[in-house]
Write a structure and sequence with these properties.
This protein is 19% helix and 36% strand. With 74 residues, the chain is an alpha+beta fold. A hairpin with a 2-residue loop joins strand 1 and strand 2. The longest helix has 14 residues.
């Protein structure tokens, strides 16, 4: 069953939850641990899971896909 997370009035399908420490660039052989390096590692996670949004919850990142509104086609 898919987990749905609401941020305000926008629904997101949670594809994967990862701990912030799992995005530490040093784990991947990158000799930096500044915020920009963390974001580059996180971007790779997001792209590899075909996600378009990241939410932060406690000590984790939620990799999400935005649930779009239904369109009526006539």
């Amino acid at each position: 069953m898919k987990q749905i997370y609401y941020n305000g009035d926008r629904p997101y399908q949670v594809v994967r939850t990862i701990k912030i420490q799992d995005c530490n660039p040093r784990n991947f052989g990158i000799p930096r641990d500044d915020e920009q390096a963390y974001m580059k590692v996180l971007k790779v996670w997001v792209e590899s899971h075909n996600c378009d949004h990241v939410l932060k919850q406690n000590n984790s990142y939620l990799l999400c896909r935005t649930i779009k509104d239904a369109e009526i086609i006539e």
